[in-house]
Input
Amino acid sequence: MKRIVVVAVMIAFVALAACKPNATSVTTGGPNPPFEGELPQDPYIFQGEPGLYGGQIVLELKNDPRTFNIILASDENTAFLLQYHVNRWLIDFRNGDDPPDYDSGLCTKWETSSDAKQWTFYLRRGVRWSDGEPFTADDLMFTYDVMLDEKVETASRDVFKEGTDAAGKPIYPKLEKIDDYTVRFTLRNGSAMFLDQIVNFFPIPKHKWEQVWRAGKFNQAMQLGDKLEDIVSLGPFRIKEYVSGQRVVLERNPYFWKVDKKGQRLPYLDRVVFVTAKDFNTVQAKFQAGELDIMSRVRAEDYAQVKKMESPDIVVQDIGTVLDTQWLVLNQNNSVNRATGKPFVEPWKQRLFRDQKFRQAVSYAIDREGLVNTVYVGRAVPLYSFVTPADKFWYSDDVMKYAHEPERARQMLAEMGLKDTNGDGILEDAEGHALEFTIHTNSENSQRIRSVAFITRNLQDVGIKINSSPISLNALVQLQQSVFNFDGLLLGWGTAVPPGPTNTKNITLSSSLNHACFAGQTKPSTEWEARIDELVHEIDSSLDMAVRKQKYAEIQRIWSEQLPEINLVAQKEAIAYKNIFGNLLPSPMPPRVTWNVEEIYIKQK
Output
C-alpha cells in the first residue's frame, strides 16, 4: 500500500508542476531521477555550452498520440511526441545547426564504398536501452526485419524501397551483421542519399518485442493503454505517465549515452511534459497564462496577438515560410472494399475524381490568394506542388500554377458534360447525379475548418456543393490510410527531416500508405504515377546531384499537373518561448524547438 501512495503523490506532483505557471524554472544542481549504470566506452560528447541539472520543459500536444510504437507512427502528434524525445535514429540529424547536418548519434562513424552501394555503421559500445539492457547489432537486424514485414503497418518501409523485381515484388537494401557493433547495408544501386533513409530507422529492442512480432501481433504492440515500462527506447527521455486528453510526462532516461564536454551526463532536464491542448486557442491561452513554456507553432491569425507578449521574458521568433504543406485531396481509389464487395468510392464520383480535367477545374476554382489573405491573414504563400519555397535546395518553381479563374473552371466542367439541368445552381452529370461531395478535416484545427468553408464558397460558385465534416485527426488518418471511404480530405503534411526526395517517398510513391489520393497501391493505377515511381527510384540510384535535382523537379511538375493532392498554401509561422532556457535553438523543421532536448537546460536567474 505504501508503494501505491508514493506513486499517487508523485503523479499528483507532476500534474501540478505541468500546470503551475513558472514551475519549470527550477534547477536542483543534480539529476532527479538520477542516472544509472556505466557510460558507454565511447560516449557521444556534446561540444556546446554545458548546462545545469533540474526542472522541466512544458509544451503542447495537439491531441493524444495514436500509439507509442515508433515503427507505426504516421500522424503528427505521435511523431512530435516520440521523435527526438523518446526514440532516436541510428544516426542523428541536427536540424537546428547552421547548416543542418547529420551527426554520429548512436554510431561512432559510418563508411560508404566508392560506388555508394555499401554503407557500414559502427555502433557505440556499451549503449543501453532505457531498461538497462545492452543495445547491439542484433537490435538493428530485428528492427529491419520488422520494418520490412508487409504485415506491419509502417510508412517507413516505403522510404527504403529501391524498386521492384520482375515479379513486381519490392526490392530493399540488404542488411547484414558484421559483428555485435557493426552492420552493413548493401544496395542494389548506389545511393549518395542513403543517410536520408537512415534517419527513418528507429531501433527497437529485440529483447522486448521479438516474441510479439513472431506471434503476428506487432501492430498491437506499444498501445496507449499498455504498461509504460514496456516502452523501451534509446532517446533522452522515457514515458513516465500518460493521461488521455490531459498530458504525457517524460522522465530522464537514466541510461542515456551522451555527455557534455565537462563529462556531465545528458539530459540536463528532469522531465518533459506534453500538455494536451486540442485547439490553437487553448495553446495560446495556456502559454499566456504561463502554463506552457513553448508555443512550437504560432499560427498566422494568432501572430499579431502573440507578438504583443514579446518582452525580456518572452521570445517570439519568426521563422518565415515553413516546409509544411496544406492540401485538398479527392479520393481516386478505384478498388473494392473486400468486406462489403462494393467500391470505396461511388462509381460516378470515382469517374470525376480520377479525371485530371476535373481536378484541374477544382484547382482553378480555388482562390489561393483569397485564402492567404483571409484565413491566413496574409501570412502564407500560394502553393501548387508538394515542396514549398522554404526548401531552397529542392524547390522547383517550374510547376503548373492555378490562378483563381472560376470562368475557366466552369468551362472545363462544361466540356466534361456537367450541367445544371434543374436551375438549382448545382451541376449534374449525364446520369443525373448532383455534384455534391463531403470534405473532412480535423475538428481540432479551426484554421482548416475555415479553409474548408472558404473553399466551399469557391466551389459553390462553379456549381459544386460541398458539405464540411470535421472529425478527429486520428479518424482522418484512418480514413486516408485504411478505411478509404471518403470523398475529399483537407489536411497537411509536416516536413520530413531532412527534407528532400528520399523522405517524401512515403507520399510520392503509389505504394505508400501516405499517397493520399490512393494509398497502398500494389501497382500504379495510372501512367503518371508509374512515371513518378520510376523517377523516385532513379533519384535514389543517381550519384549526380544535378541529375537528382532535375528528376525531382520533374516529379514536382507532374504533381502540379496531375494533382494527386491539390496543394493550397504554405504558412509563415513563428515560435514563442520563455526566455529561461539555455541551448534552445529553434528550427523550421520539426520538432522546431526541442530537436536537441537533451542539451536544453534552465538558466540560473
Notes: Residues 2-83+221-320+574-602 form a domain with the D-Maltodextrin-Binding Protein; domain 2 fold (CATH 3.40.190.10). The chain has three domains: 2-83+221-320+574-602, 93-208, 325-495+563-572.
